């Protein structure tokens, strides 16, 4: 019996590319993927649950985890920390379940440094013009902010070489199918299964 460990899949890309939309559509299908639960120091809100929405920790606890390298990535936003706890990810993978993390580019590069065995997928806009249209259509950004976001997107696109796969998000359904294909193909990679198969052969000869 092959007991396969799970794989960490990291979906990333510039702001406005549609990471959340693709992740939501992916999880509406029965993929067996486990969404990575983040940790935060912000107070729990009404209707939220510990271990479902976030893992809620004090600032002191969080900073201790940073010092002990217990986070695959973290960032500070509006006075609160947010991060991905290493233990949760590793325990889920050991249980044979795939973990899916949707994150900004800087966070993905932190994860790659701390967990290089993950599979990194870059979600790419069909064009910069389309990316601009998506950011503008949100209706929440000023002209200056749109310009800043596009400049940041250009810089993030140049970091694409750090990723294993690139998926163009022209149609959500097509992008989801490509991500599913990546998940399937990664489980068939020789180097992932060779160790288990060799063990079976050894056990059979013993």
Automatic annotation (TrEMBL):
<dbReference type="InterPro" id="IPR020590">
    <property type="entry name" value="Guanylate_kinase_CS"/>
</dbReference>
<protein>
    <recommendedName>
        <fullName>Guanylate kinase</fullName>
        <ecNumber>2.7.4.8</ecNumber>
    </recommendedName>
</protein>
<comment type="similarity">
    <text>Belongs to the guanylate kinase family.</text>
</comment>
<keyword id="KW-0808">Transferase</keyword>
<feature type="binding site">
    <location>
        <begin position="13"/>
        <end position="20"/>
    </location>
    <ligand>
        <name>ATP</name>
    </ligand>
</feature>
<dbReference type="InterPro" id="IPR008144">
    <property type="entry name" value="Guanylate_kin-like_dom"/>
</dbReference>
<feature type="domain" description="Guanylate kinase-like">
    <location>
        <begin position="6"/>
        <end position="184"/>
    </location>
</feature>
<dbReference type="InterPro" id="IPR008145">
    <property type="entry name" value="GK/Ca_channel_bsu"/>
</dbReference>
<dbReference type="Pfam" id="PF00625">
    <property type="entry name" value="Guanylate_kin"/>
</dbReference>
<dbReference type="GO" id="GO:0005524">
    <property type="term" value="F:ATP binding"/>
</dbReference>
<keyword id="KW-0547">Nucleotide-binding</keyword>
<dbReference type="GO" id="GO:0005829">
    <property type="term" value="C:cytosol"/>
</dbReference>
<keyword id="KW-0418">Kinase</keyword>
<keyword id="KW-0067">ATP-binding</keyword>
<dbReference type="InterPro" id="IPR017665">
    <property type="entry name" value="Guanylate_kinase"/>
</dbReference>
<dbReference type="GO" id="GO:0004385">
    <property type="term" value="F:GMP kinase activity"/>
</dbReference>
<dbReference type="InterPro" id="IPR027417">
    <property type="entry name" value="P-loop_NTPase"/>
</dbReference>
<comment type="function">
    <text>Essential for recycling GMP and indirectly, cGMP.</text>
</comment>
<keyword id="KW-0963">Cytoplasm</keyword>
């Amino acid at each position: 019996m092959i007991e396969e460990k799970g794989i960490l899949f990291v979906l990333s890309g510039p702001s406005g590319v549609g990471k959340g939309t693709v992740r939501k559509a992916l999880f509406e299908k029965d993929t067996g993927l486990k969404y990575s639960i983040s940790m935060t120091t912000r107070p729990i809100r009404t209707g939220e649950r510990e271990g479902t929405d976030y893992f809620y920790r004090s600032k002191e606890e969080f900073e201790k985890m940073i010092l002990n390298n217990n986070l695959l990535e973290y960032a500070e936003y509006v006075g609160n920390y947010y991060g991905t706890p290493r233990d949760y990810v590793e325990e889920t993978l050991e249980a044979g379940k795939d973990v899916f993390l949707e994150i900004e580019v800087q966070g993905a590069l932190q994860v790659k440094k701390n967990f290089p065995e993950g599979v990194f997928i870059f979600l790419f806009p069909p064009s910069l013009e389309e990316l601009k249209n998506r950011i503008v259509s949100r209706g929440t950004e000023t002209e200056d902010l749109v310009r800043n976001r596009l400049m940041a997107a250009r810089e993030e696109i140049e970091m694409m070489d750090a990723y294993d796969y690139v998926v163009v998000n022209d149609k959500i359904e097509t992008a989801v199918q490509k991500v599913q294909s990546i998940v399937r193909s990664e489980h068939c990679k020789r180097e992932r299964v060779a160790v288990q198969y060799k063990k079976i052969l050894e056990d059979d000869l013993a």
